[in-house]
Structure formats: structure tokens, C-alpha cells
Design brief:
This protein is α+β, with helices and mostly antiparallel strands. Helix content is about 40%, strand content about 20%. It has helices at about 1-15, 30-40, 60-75, 85-95, 100-110, 125-140, 145, 165-175, 190-205, 210-235, 240-245, 250-260, 265-280, 375-380, 385-390, and strands at about 20-25, 45-55, 80-85, 120, 155, 155-160, 285, 295, 300-305, 310-315, 320, 325-330, 340-345, 350-355, 360-365, 375, 395, 400-405, 410, 425-430.
């Protein structure tokens, strides 16, 4: 009965033929049951393996768990990947709780097995985990996305036991005679999850008004439906115009900004960005973690990602590459769709280097009048957005003198004239 029910749940995931499914194996009853159910699954379309994370929290006990998982996988002839981390050190370094640090280590490792295309990761979350996670997210002030609970599928992560009760999993282990280890910290109520598990949820379910778990499950289904509707609305927003975004309700704006940012914004940063958008200044910026910025540039909202400062050696007549950019300095004119300008070869000394604009760069375009000007000032006067200014390509010699700038062409000092005998053509573009 249990195996048939499990097989039906796996069929709903429709994993492609030849894919790889990795089980997050702790050695506890839940993950051992999951690995066994998958091992016994008939006509598998995927190959099966396991991954174990040693968090560096429980000393010899965690080493025992690791060796148990190693022996179990050897006995069942299932490949095992092992990661050993130091959650306490990460917690201290990042100002996290031990639980948060362990989770960061765990998913930092498991993400490599869950691309959602041909690689998937199965975790042994069950119905009680879902209830506990609701309250943990409630503590954190989550919205409908967090409060709707753990999903059966999220990207490359699968949770085929999500509708199972803990008692059903233990019964399966007993029926099949499966060995497993017990994590003694599971009873330590100083951990929030264990406090909820042993002291809060049982009392709620003992109330005579009715079974609390059923009401909570219904509430989470409602929250999930609302979350999906808000996500669909957010996905339909294609504009980056601050004026249009300012008109959105916060629940939709938060989802739009999370997508533009590439990760979830904290509540504080969202509120700061939302306030800035609704003021809609011509230009403004707000610093975010990890060197990122949110900017309003002439009415457009932009998230920037820190980039390395590139220096690409430019050898005449040889293509140089950086990311999806291509650079070429030719000794003769060639018609192409690339941006291209010419320089007098005889006026250039030393090696050539492509790089991004830097503070203090001075540049006078060949067709401009007056003396040499600061490039930054020229770009501002020409209303070039700040992000584009920071990523502007220039060509300089090995002394750092600017010979050429993207969008402006040759510097006046290095432009061809009536005495020019040989020219370099500068070409850049994305492949």
C-alpha cells in the first residue's frame, strides 16, 4: 500500500529518462525510508544516488551518522557523495543561528545536484515538517509565499513524502526492518523547530475544538493559491519605469523587485527601495549586501551586480574575449556590424589594453573642441545612465592614456590626420 502510494507520487514528478536523482541522506528514519522507497521503485527512469552533509555540529555523533550512511549506501550499492562543513564557524562569521548556518551549508552543497533539467534532489520532508516550517516562517514575518508551506516541488528539489505523516514513515521502517540513526539534538527544545514539535503543535492538536493540523493545512492551501496569483501578476510586469512600479501594491512590487534582484530582498531593503521608487527622483541609489546597488537612472529602476575590473590585452589582428564581449584592433578597415573607429598607429606607444572606465579618466573625442575633459563629466552631460557609465569600455596604452572610448571613438590626440600612413580600426561587440 505504502509503496503503491509512493510510486504514484513519483509518477507525478515525470522525471525525464536518464536523469539523476540524489537523496539528501541524513541517516535518520525519514531519509532512510525515502532512499529505500526509491531503491525499490520499479521501472525507474532515473539513476539513484545519495548525498550526506556533515555539519560539524555534533562531534563524534555526526561522524557516526556519516559512517552509518557510508555503510548503508555500500550495502545497498548506491553511490554516496559526502560534504563536510563547519556550521558553527559559518554562524559566527555571518551572524546566523546554528540552524540557519547548517541550512546554508546543506543547500549550498545540494544545489549542485538539483538543476531541475536532468539532475534532481529528493528530500524527506513530511507533513509535520510542513507545519513546523509554517510557524518558523511566521516568526520571521514571512508573507503568503513563506506561510504557504513547503512545496512538493521547487525547481530541482522534490519532496515525495510531503503528504505522509511521521507515524507512517516510522511504520514503514519497522515493516521493512530498516536501520537508522537517531539525532539526539532532535529533542533539544532550545532549537525553534524542536520547541514547536514537542511543546506547541501537540498542545494545539489536543484542543477539543477540532484537529488543528487540518485547519492549518486548509489555510496553507489558501495562502498558496493567493501566492500563485500574486506571482502571476508580478510576472506580467515587464517595465522598469519607476513611475509604473510605484503604482503597484506592495505585495506585487516585492515580487517584481525580487525577480529583478535575482534573490529575495529583506523586508528592510524592500521598504527602503519602495519608498525611493515612490519618490521617483531623476537619479538615486541604495546600497545592498554583497556590493550590489539598487539605482534609479533617469526614471528607470536598475539592480547592479559587482563585476571584476577587467583588463584585456589587445594584440593587433587578434580577437580578445571577456565574457560574451569580443574585442579586435585591426590594421585595416573592415565593414561589419561592430562599433568601430580608427586610430593613427604611429601616435600609439606600447601595448594596448581594453578596460572599463575609471574615476579620473580624461578624454577628448576627436570631433570635440576645447581641452581634455574628465570622461565622467562628459558622460553625465550626455545623460548616460550610471550603470552604463561604470561599464563603458575604453582602450588605453600601458601608461593608462585613453586612446578610444566606446560610443565616442578616437581621442583627438590619436585620431588619423593628413599625415597618417597606417590606422588601427577598433571594434567591439557581443557575440
Amino acid at each position: 500500500m505504502m509503496k503503491a502510494r509512493f510510486q504514484k507520487a513519483m509518477e507525478e514528478f515525470s522525471l525525464p529518462q536518464g536523469s539523476v536523482l540524489t537523496v539528501a541522506l541524513s541517516g535518520g528514519s525519514d531519509s532512510v525510508a525515502l532512499l529505500h522507497l526509491l531503491k525499490e521503485l520499479p521501472n525507474r527512469a532515473f539513476s539513484l544516488q545519495a548525498a550526506h552533509i556533515e555539519h560539524g555540529i555534533r562531534g563524534e555523533a555526526s561522524r557516526r551518522d556519516l559512517e552509518f550512511c557510508r555503510a548503508l549506501c555500500e550495502d545497498w550499492e548506491i553511490p554516496l557523495h559526502i560534504f563536510e562543513g563547519d556550521a558553527p564557524a559559518l554562524a559566527k562569521e555571518q551572524g546566523m543561528s546554528p540552524e540557519e548556518a547548517a541550512r546554508a551549508l546543506r543547500y549550498g552543497f545540494l544545489d549542485s545536484f538539483a538543476d531541475g533539467q536532468m539532475q534532481f534532489c529528493a528530500t524527506a520532508h513530511h507533513r509535520r515538517d510542513r507545519e513546523e516550517t509554517f510557524f518558523i516562517n511566521l516568526y520571521r514575518g514571512s508573507g503568503s509565499s513563506g506561510l504557504s508551506g513547503i512545496k512538493a516541488r521547487r525547481g530541482g528539489y522534490l519532496r515525495p513524502l510531503l503528504e505522509w505523516e511521521k507515524e507512517e514513515i516510522l511504520a514503514y521502517c519497522a515493516e521493512q526492518g530498516l536501520p537508522y540513526v537517531w539525532d539526539e539534538t532532535n529533542e533539544d527544545t532550545s532549537y525553534l523547530r524542536n520547541f514547536l514539535r514537542y511543546e506547541i503543535l501537540p498542545r494545539l492538536n489536543q484542543r477539543q475544538e477540532g484537529k488543528f493540523s487540518e485547519g492549518l493545512a486548509a489555510a496553507m492551501r489558501c495562502l498558496e493559491a493567493e501566492d500563485q496569483a500574486l506571482n502571476q501578476w508580478a510576472e506580467s510586469i515587464q517595465t522598469d519605469a519607476a513611475e509604473a512600479l510605484a503604482a503597484l501594491p506592495d505585495a506585487v512590487l516585492k515580487r517584481v523587485l525580487d525577480r529583478r534582484n535575482g534573490s529575495l530582498l529583506s523586508r528592510l531593503h524592500f521598504e527602503q527601495i519602495a519608498a525611493l521608487i515612490r519618490k521617483n527622483p531623476p537619479s538615486a541609489q541604495l546600497q545592498l549586501p554583497q556590493g550590489r546597488y539598487f539605482r534609479i537612472e533617469y526614471g528607470k529602476c536598475v539592480f547592479t551586480v559587482p563585476q571584476e575590473a577587467p583588463e584585456i590585452a589587445a594584440i593587433p589582428n587578434q580577437i580578445a574575449r571577456w565574457g560574451d564581449w569580443e574585442f579586435l584592433v585591426l590594421s585595416e578597415e573592415i565593414n561589419s556590424a561592430f562599433t568601430h573607429f580608427q586610430l593613427d598607429c604611429d601616435k600609439i606607444k606600447g601595448n594596448l589594453i581594453f578596460r572599463h572606465k575609471r574615476d579620473g579618466d580624461r578624454f577628448l573625442p576627436a570631433k570635440a573642441g576645447g581641452g581634455t575633459s574628465r570622461l565622467q563629466k562628459r558622460l553625465k552631460n550626455d545623460r548616460v545612465p550610471r550603470t552604463a557609465r561604470e561599464q563603458l569600455w575604453v582602450l588605453c596604452d600601458e601608461q593608462g592614456t585613453l586612446l578610444w572610448a566606446e560610443g565616442y571613438g578616437a581621442a583627438k590626440e590619436f585620431a588619423p590626420d593628413e599625415n597618417t600612413k597606417q590606422v588601427y580600426t577598433v571594434k567591439i561587440g557581443k557575440n
